[in-house]
């Protein structure tokens, strides 16, 4: 299947038999090209949705896959058919080592020219170096879609560079677009709701809620109105094994993931323009990671050693239970007070954060001038590969609609 790839001068392509429908769609100029960097849990689910949902493969043409080791291309002359294919083996056996990002850009610009279609890069990694490259992708005319929070919550200089290049707000522009729905609340419409509220002239007064799917799952299991009979460390292990956590669970338990989401949202609120967090580290954050584990480099070792600290988590839980409350990890952006923070709080059993959540649910309340009597609430699963991929694929559909 892969026999002729070694003859290609620079990168490998996988010529596979095309069904008439696939052949027709590859030769048409409609839709956009999609280059996927990162094919782990979320990336795999993105590919699954792109290749199996009716109608998507004729709008969203996968032209490249790249992980940290390999790259696999599809070109107009040698199309890659991923539907029903064992693409993991194809990628693993590709003769092309993972391209440096500047080289990847050059190849994608060539594919863009040859296909006559706009190209979007999807970053499904959690890599800071890939995130730091977004301005270069955009400068090369490539759109960016990502669930990776690093660029939007990292140094403010990188964020401002991205703003310089993206043309989302320029009506009729054919410039590159940036969509990032899954950076907050996975596929839940959090970024789009906030940007719609702002674009239509509403004023945001406060955003608060449970922003971490992992910490929601953990505390929904650990701290219930009836008390808790499960070990904190067992719950974390299950969350990691089921893809709710970040690749390293410390990114969740340290509160960094919530702090990143708060930085991302607060940067979208015009009233906070003068008080923007310079990075997620400037958001006051309560860490749940035991001090001796703070520097453990591997996620596996972190989970392995967490049982040493179960008694400490039990103590916190019992204190809340004795007050008739439960523990929940929440984030708040109080626009009026100019206060942004991520912290572990206690809530009475009747509070919506205590009573209405289950699994990896997020609940986010937008308090605004229009929604002043009762906040606009968005609730649902906020972590997991499928719901995260849904946000990514929906963003790609938006780009295809604007750029086809
Ligand atoms: N899981 C979830 O519920 C949610 C995840 N997200 C975000 O989605 C992103 C992906 O998460 P997830 O799929 O769980 O992570 P995984 O660890 O499962 O996958 C990461 C992928 O990125 C690849 N990768 C890492 N660094 C590079 C690099 N420099 N160049 C190319 N490929 C690279 C890895 O390749 P290799 O295997 O070769 O190392 C792997 O394919 C993260 O940013 C996460 O924060 C957002 C919302 C929810
Ligand atoms: N680890 C994150 C995944 C989505 O951002 C979370 O738990 O919310
Ligand atoms: Na979202």
Describe the protein.
NADPH binds at residues 125, 149. The protein has helices at 20-27, 41-52, 87-92, 101-115, 128-132, 134-139, 150-153, 156-165, 191-199, 213-222, 232-241, 250-253, 256-266, 299-305, 310-322, 352-355, 385-403, and strands spanning 32-37, 60-66, 71-73, 119-123, 143-145, 178-179, 204-210, 325-334, 339-348, 361-368, 376-381. With 404 residues, the chain is an alpha/beta fold. It has two domains: 32-186 and 388-402, NAD(P)-binding Rossmann-like Domain (Rossmann fold, 3-Layer(aba) Sandwich), CATH 3.40.50; 191-381, Dihydrodipicolinate Reductase, domain 2 (2-Layer Sandwich). The strands form two sheets. A six-stranded mixed β-sheet has the order 3-2-1-4-5-6. A hairpin with a 4-residue loop joins strand 2 and strand 3 (71-73). The longest helix has 19 residues, at 385-403. The radius of gyration is 22 Å and the shape is globular. Residues 1-28 have low confidence and may be disordered. The ligand N[C@@H](CC=O)C(=O)O binds at residues 186, 212-214, 244-246, 252, 257, 382-383.
């Amino acid at each position: 299947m892969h026999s002729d790839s070694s003859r290609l001068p620079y990168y490998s392509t996988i010529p596979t038999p095309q069904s008439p429908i696939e052949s027709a769609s590859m030769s048409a100029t409609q839709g956009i090209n999609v280059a996927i960097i990162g094919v782990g849990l979320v990336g795999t689910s993105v590919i699954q949705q792109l290749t199996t949902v009716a109608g998507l493969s004729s709008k969203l043409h996968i032209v490249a896959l790249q992980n940290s080791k390999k790259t696999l291309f599809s070109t107009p002359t040698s199309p890659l058919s991923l539907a029903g294919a064992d693409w993991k083996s194809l990628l693993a056996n590709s003769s092309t080592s993972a391209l440096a990002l500047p080289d990847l850009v050059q190849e994608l610009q060539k594919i863009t020219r040859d296909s006559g279609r706009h190209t979007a890069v999807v970053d499904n990694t959690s890599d800071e170096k890939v995130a730091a490259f977004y301005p270069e992708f955009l400068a090369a005319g490539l759109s960016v879609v990502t669930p990776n929070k690093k660029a939007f919550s990292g140094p403010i200089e990188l964020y401002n560079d991205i703003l310089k290049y993206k043309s989302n707000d320029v009506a009729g522009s054919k410039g590159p677009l940036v969509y990032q729905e899954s950076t907050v609340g996975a596929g839940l419409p959090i970024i789009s709701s906030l940007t719609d509220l702002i674009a239509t002239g509403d004023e945001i007064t406060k955003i608060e809620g449970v922003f971490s799917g992992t910490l929601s799952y953990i505390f929904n299991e650990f701290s219930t109105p009836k008390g808790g009979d499960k070990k904190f460390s067992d719950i974390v292990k299950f969350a990691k094994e089921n893809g709710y956590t970040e690749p390293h669970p410390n990114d969740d338990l340290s509160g960094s993931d919530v702090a990143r989401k708060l930085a991302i949202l607060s940067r979208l609120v015009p009233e906070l323009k003068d008080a923007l967090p310079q990075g997620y580290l400037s958001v006051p954050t309560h860490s749940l990671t035991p001090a001796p584990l703070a520097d453990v480099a591997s996620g596996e070792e972190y989970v392995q050693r967490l049982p040493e600290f179960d008694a400490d988590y039990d103590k916190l839980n019992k204190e809340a239970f004795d007050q008739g409350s439960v523990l929940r990890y929440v984030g708040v952006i109080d626009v009026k007070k100019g206060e942004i923070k991520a912290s572990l709080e206690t809530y009475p059993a009747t509070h919506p954060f205590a009573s209405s959540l289950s699994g990896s649910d997020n609940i986010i309340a937008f308090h605004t001038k229009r929604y002043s009597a009762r906040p606009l609430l968005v609730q649902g699963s906020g972590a997991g590969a499928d719901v995260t991929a849904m946000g990514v694929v929906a963003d790609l559909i938006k780009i295809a609609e604007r750029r086809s």
